[in-house]
Amino acid sequence: MRRPTLDETPLAVLPRTTGWPTIQEPPLRLRVDPEPDDSGRRRIRLHGEFDAGSVDLVCAAVDHVLRSGRDVVVDLGAVEFCDASAARALLACAHQAAAARRTVAVANPRPFQRRLLTMLRVDEVVTIEGP
What we know:
Residues 16-40 are annotated as: Disordered. This protein is of the alpha/beta class. The chain has a single domain (27-125), classed as STAS domain (Transcription Regulator spoIIAA, 2-Layer Sandwich), CATH 3.30.750. Helix content is 29%, strand content 24%. Helix 1 (55-67) packs parallel to helix 2. The longest helix is centred in the last third of the chain and has 16 residues, at 84-99. It starts with 27 loop residues before the first strand and ends with a strand. The relative contact order is 0.14.
């Protein structure tokens, strides 16, 4: 027996929904400032959760800025969560920048982020700016 297609199914038979579908925001959003700052660096502003699920996005953005010949500042001011994978990604970005004779800095870390970066000794490789 052939099943009816959606076009052939009477509306009364269609399953009812319980409301509007929810749209979930991505765990991390980022924005690369279009213009360099006064010192010639490009700022990448992160917002949300910087973890294993988003490190590739951040590394790709850093790579994009480095290819333009600019130093990079990763702004963590609006990051609500980060973990050791984020710290490892920042280290990898710093090594990539050093190979291109550029630098990566971290700006505006929250206290827990600064503690994490210090405990994992990221601050020995990456300059940390701000509070």
